[in-house]
């Protein structure tokens, strides 16, 4: 069982457009509504893969009730912490070439009591969890050290923690030695305080995060694959992708694939890349099922292409 924590969940609306024109009335060719937030997406991907998951999150107002309803329809158990403000609603506009325009609302401000309630809800439900995945940005009202406290409490209870966040929240949590951290290239560059132009630059940055406390680093490099750096070794993996339809939630699907495959070593990395590659070929934030995966399209190697320029350099 994988328990997820999403401190700032959302109701996500995705619209596919023939063209994006500023100042015009636009007519969508397709639309969908999904429960959103990084931890929510991890739970959705875990459930789509046929594994048990429980999603902990603060929920408020009609949007929060709809998030819980949509997750229930996907067979996902929700452990909500009721808050005063409305759960945020986010909008994604998708153009035919796959370009995404996202509008993310700030979400409600949580109280000190809400912060404690979230920690206690995780403690109450974490017995028997194989992994606890803490994902996404922190909402207003939660200090950057909140994730660090969560990691410390989880370790005291004997649980393994995967952390997917960025900025001060990530840096503060490193001192508590999370079992896995999952930055993308931009978040990795931000964490080490310098641009990343090559796969070799990214590899060096993952090692610095390990030196700072992360036990394993799973770094997403977009079209350039993923890096895994841990006690078991260092690996690079890529996958063939026919058409990118939407990358919303692809990193979350990837983390789910990594954790459901054990969260350690090259086999887990291959699962992560297969899940991420499948997700980008699906609309909106649809999570892949086992039928969507193409393991044969994934290549894993210890021969890291250090001089390979990143398709999208991170600054």
Molecular structure report:
There is one protein chain. Helix content is 33%, strand content 26%. The protein has 315 residues and is α/β, with parallel strands linked by helices. A six-stranded parallel sheet has the order 5-4-1-8-9-10, sandwiched between helices. It has a four-stranded mixed sheet with strand order 3-2-6-7. The chain has a four-stranded antiparallel sheet with strand order 12-13-14-15, with helices on both faces. The longest helix has 15 residues, at 265-279.
Write the layout of secondary structure elements.
Elements: E1 2-5, E2 10-16, E3 30-36, H1 38-48, E4 53-59, H2 61-73, E5 77-82, E6 88-94, E7 100-103, H3 112-125, E8 131-135, H4 146-156, E9 161-164, H5 167-174, E10 180-181, H6 185-192, E11 196-198, H7 199-212, E12 217-220, E13 226-230, E14 233-239, H8 250-260, H9 265-279, E15 298-301, E16 309-314
Parallel strand pairs: 1-4, 1-8, 2-6, 4-5, 8-9, 9-10
Antiparallel strand pairs: 2-3, 6-7, 11-16, 12-13, 13-14, 14-15
**Percent helix range:** 25-40%
Strand tally: 16
Largest sheet: spatial strand order: 5-4-1-8-9-10
What's the CATH superfamily, by name? Answer: Ribokinase
Structural class: alpha/beta
CATH top level? Alpha Beta
- Which regions contain 5 or more consecutive residues with pLDDT less than 50? none
Biggest β-sheet strands, sense, barrel: 6 strands, parallel
Based on CA atoms alone, the radius of gyration comes out at 18 Å
What is the total number of structural domains?
1
How far apart are the first and last residues' alpha carbons, in Å? 36 Å
Annotated CATH architecture: 3-Layer(aba) Sandwich
Q: Could you report the average pLDDT, rounded to the nearest whole number?
A: 94
Domain Carbohydrate kinase PfkB: 20-290
Keywords: ATP-binding, Kinase, Nucleotide-binding, Transferase
Family: Belongs to the carbohydrate kinase PfkB family.
InterPro entries: 1-PFruKinase, PfkB_dom, Ribokinase-like, Tagatose/fructose_Pkinase
């Amino acid at each position: 069982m994988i328990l997820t924590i999403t401190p700032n969940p959302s109701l996500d609306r995705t619209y596919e457009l023939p063209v994006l024109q500023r100042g015009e009335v636009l007519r969508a060719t397709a639309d969908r509504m999904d429960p959103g937030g990084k931890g929510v997406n991890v739970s959705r991907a875990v459930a789509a893969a046929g594994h048990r998951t429980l999603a902990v999150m603060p929920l408020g107002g009609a949007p929060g009730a709809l998030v819980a309803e949509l997750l229930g329809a996907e067979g996902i158990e929700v452990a909500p912490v009721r808050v005063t403000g409305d759960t945020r609603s986010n909008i994604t506009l998708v153009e035919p070439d796959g370009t995404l325009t996202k509008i993310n609302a700030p979400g409600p401000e949580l109280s000190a009591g809400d912060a404690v309630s979230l920690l206690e809800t995780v403690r109450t439900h974490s017995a028997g969890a194989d992994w606890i995945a803490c994902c996404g940005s922190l909402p207003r009202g939660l200090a950057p050290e909140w994730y660090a406290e969560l990691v410390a409490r989880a370790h005291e209870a004997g649980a393994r923690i995967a952390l997917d966040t960025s900025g001060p929240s990530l840096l503060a949590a490193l001192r508590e030695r999370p079992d896995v951290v999952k930055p993308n290239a931009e978040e990795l560059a931000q964490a080490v305080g310098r641009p990343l132009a090559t796969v070799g630059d990214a590899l060096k940055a993952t090692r610095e995060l390990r030196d700072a406390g992360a036990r394993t680093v799973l770094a997403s490099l977009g079209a350039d694959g993923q890096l895994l750096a841990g006690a078991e070794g260092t690996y690079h993996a890529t996958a063939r992708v026919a058409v990118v339809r939407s990358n919303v939630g692809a990193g979350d699907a990837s983390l789910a694939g990594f954790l459901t495959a054990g969260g350690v070593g090259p086999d887990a990395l291959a699962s992560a890349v297969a899940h991420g590659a499948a997700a980008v070929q699906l609309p909106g934030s649809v999570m892949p099922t086992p039928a969507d995966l193409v393991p044969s399209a994934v290549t894993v190697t210890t021969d890291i292409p250090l001089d390979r320029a990143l398709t999208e350099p991170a600054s």
